[in-house]
Task: inverse folding
């Protein structure tokens, strides 16, 4: 064979892009260890906007960054709402108004983070994702952040966000069922979060039970033939699905 093989030489632009993406990921790791999740989210947003596909590790970093940025704010909203209600019940209207103002401020921050994530998913990640785990992961994430938005949106806008969450979860479920093993943590995580959405947001407990039982039953049938590592990866979500099923069945029996 006289055809010569050319050595691949990265262009300066490729080298800069590689270094920039590596830098963003390293900074995200440092921010995570420092528990500075807003900064971690910024670094992962930068990484997404570089345009090249995210690795599985980078997808997990993206998820952890925004989940961490939201966690404290979701808790703050819950605490402020409880405080607001307590003060109102005791007739302390001025204190209740202060708690309401604080809750509104944090809710605005929460909405801004959710909108940022959903924008990244809709504009960059979902359209460019490979079929299978990447696309299922991003669609689940889109459903999750629409669900978080629902917690602090009221009136007509809430119905729009609820519908967007339902569509994202439904697409994620279809993608996972079409391409992922029944014991895949991503597939089980989609079933877990979708069923919680059905129960908590839609008020469709029977639908939530059906979603959870289908996922858990399929995984239980296949898990015996899986390697030990795959069993470990699946076990947490399987246990959470079972815990929810127990609670929902009990609630139905008591109703």
Result:
């Amino acid at each position: 064979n006289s055809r010569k093989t050319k050595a691949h030489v990265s262009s300066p632009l490729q080298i800069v892009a590689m270094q920039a993406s590596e830098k963003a990921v390293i900074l995200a790791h440092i921010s995570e260890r420092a528990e500075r999740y807003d900064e971690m989210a910024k670094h992962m947003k930068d990484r997404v906007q570089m345009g090249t596909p995210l690795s599985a590790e980078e997808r997990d970093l993206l998820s952890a960054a925004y989940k961490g940025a939201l966690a404290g704010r979701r808790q703050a909203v819950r605490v402020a709402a409880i405080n607001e209600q307590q003060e109102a019940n005791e007739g302390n209207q001025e204190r209740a108004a202060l708690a309401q103002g604080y809750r509104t401020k944090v809710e605005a921050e929460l909405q801004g983070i959710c909108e940022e994530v959903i924008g990244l998913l809709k504009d960059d990640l979902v359209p460019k994702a490979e079929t299978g785990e990447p696309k299922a992961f991003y669609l689940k994430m889109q459903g999750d952040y629409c669900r978080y938005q629902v917690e602090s949106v009221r009136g007509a806008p809430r119905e729009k966000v609820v519908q967007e969450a339902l569509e994202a979860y439904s697409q994620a479920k279809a993608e996972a069922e079409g391409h992922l093993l029944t014991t895949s943590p991503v597939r089980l995580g989609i079933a877990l979060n979708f069923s919680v959405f059905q129960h908590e947001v839609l008020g469709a407990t029977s639908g939530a039970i059906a979603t959870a039982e289908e996922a858990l039953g399929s995984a239980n049938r296949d898990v015996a033939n899986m390697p030990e590592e795959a069993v470990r990866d699946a076990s947490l979500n399987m246990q959470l699905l079972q815990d929810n099923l127990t609670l929902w069945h009990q609630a139905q029996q008591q109703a």
